[in-house]
Amino acid sequence: MSNEHVSWRDMLQPHVQGTRKRVVEQEGGDVLVVHDTTDMTLPIYWPDRRRRHLVPTTSRSQGMLLHESLAVSASGESLPLGTLAIQPYVHQDARVSIRRAGKHGQSKADVAEGPADSL
Q1: Single pTM value for the model
Q2: Contact in structure between 102 and 111 (CB atoms under 8 Å)
């Protein structure tokens, strides 16, 4: 993010609070917390202005891995209730791209060395 006074965790907090409220209000009471890790890829529009803290995925894009915990109602229809947590992961060695790692026998977990708290 380009505004150093705003953190992604602060922006996420109202969404998490809303999700917790919907979980408590859920009729039937059963809620699943589903976890998923996905590739997040962003295009590069200006080659000289690459985003900080992201790795190259192609010559025209950058990205990261994002792990999300999503609350879903378990009774009746499986309706999404919202996000409980997210954690971005970025490889610390920008020479290894997320997409190339799979081609060289590395798992995405090997590429994602650690949480990217400074995004």
Answers
A1: 0.65
A2: no
